[in-house]
Structures are given as C-alpha cells and as structure tokens.
Amino acid sequence: MKFKKRIASRIKQFREELGFPQKYLADLVGVSRQTIYYLERGSYNPSLTISFKISDIFKKPIQEIFYQEPIIKEILEGKPLSELREIAELAGIKLEKLASLSEIDDKQLIRDFKEDTLI
C-alpha cells in the first residue's frame, strides 16, 4: 500500500503546485471531484486513460507520477498484446521491461512487435 500513498501524494502535490482545486482537475480529466479525492487518498486506481490525462495536464512524464512496478502490473493485467506497444511508448518503458512486468516472454513480445511493424 505504500506505493499507492506515494503516487497519491505526488498527484496532490502536482495539483497544488498548479493551484488547481480538486474540482478543476476533475473537470479537466473528465471525472468527478470524488474520483480525484479518492485518487489523492490512494484508494482509487486510475485507468490508463485517466493516468495519461493527468500526466498531460501536469506536463510531467507519466513515469514521474505513476511509475511503480505494482501499479504498472495492475494496469497491464489482462491487456491484449495489441495494446502493449502503445503503453510502452506512452510510458517510456523498454519492451523488455514491459514484458517482465506483464509476465510475457520478452523475446516473443519483441518478435511480435517486429513482425507487426515490419522492422
């Protein structure tokens, strides 16, 4: 649970540095104020879409806000292979690291990406 609290405190810190009330950030992200409240308490796991919106709003790399292996594992769980490339690019994670976090064979993941992109 410590990692959720660290992420929660970063989100609150960045929001306050920008002078945004929770309601304003919620409106920008497209969620309720209560969602931001629970996110800042560490009792809500944001979706990948919400995570990237927050990263964009704060103008911070997503890994600066959210990168903790347990969080990444939760986000990746159950995602189809077709979504992993986008996740890797947006999060700035190397394919090998992404494979290890998602418990996918890294050689197979890289082979699939190369075949898909004709590299």
UniProtKB/TrEMBL annotation:
<protein>
    <recommendedName>
        <fullName>HTH cro/C1-type domain-containing protein</fullName>
    </recommendedName>
</protein>
<dbReference type="Pfam" id="PF01381">
    <property type="entry name" value="HTH_3"/>
</dbReference>
<dbReference type="InterPro" id="IPR001387">
    <property type="entry name" value="Cro/C1-type_HTH"/>
</dbReference>
<keyword id="KW-0238">DNA-binding</keyword>
<dbReference type="InterPro" id="IPR010982">
    <property type="entry name" value="Lambda_DNA-bd_dom_sf"/>
</dbReference>
<dbReference type="GO" id="GO:0003677">
    <property type="term" value="F:DNA binding"/>
</dbReference>
<feature type="domain" description="HTH cro/C1-type">
    <location>
        <begin position="11"/>
        <end position="65"/>
    </location>
</feature>
